[in-house]
Amino acid sequence: MPATHGADEDIDWQSAEAAWGTAFPADFVAFMGRFGAGSINGEASILLPLPKPGLQWVPAEMAEETDNARQVWEAEGGRAAFDVDPEAIIAWGVTGGSDILCWLTSDPDPDRWPVVVCGRHTADSFAVYPYGMAEFLYRLCSDEFDVSPVSITFWDGGHLSFVHWRKAQRRWQEGRNPETGEPDPYAGEFTD
After folding, report:
1. Which positions are tagged coiled coil (predicted)?
2. Which of 22, 30, 87, 114 has its CA 20 to 30 A from that of 172?
3. Which domain covers residue 142, as residue numbers?
4. What is the pLDDT of residues 92-110, one digit of tens each?
């Protein structure tokens, strides 16, 4: 996937680690360095670890989606449904199908955290995949799962694209579709 519309996010990792009480996986740090936060094919969004000033609309944030995943854990039966400490669930992404992509942070080594999909329309509300974020995304984008781990058809075999949140924001303000850049009669309609 080209980083054409990606950008180094310039994350203050020391502040992010202090806020979350943990270091982050190296693949997530590298992804942020190459792409930043944004959307893959308009179907999966990678979240910022900390809120960013200057956003014109409020995209999903890591803290908000982490809270959402933990609420789903509680609503689905807590430990009886998924026997983990809910504090060990940290969201790093979301899909257009309302799935929340998380890490299970039980291991003290962030590079060994598996991905947990908090599925909204999947067979199981929680499913653990023994991969890090980058490998999970690679497998998702390569259509390597026999059964999709998310609620949507993520990739149809066509072109993969990434659009950074700043680029999407500019397109929206210019009256274009944030993902494709094509004219969009509804883009910018809800801005001040």
Report:
1. none
2. 30
3. 13-174
4. 999 877 889 999 999 999 9
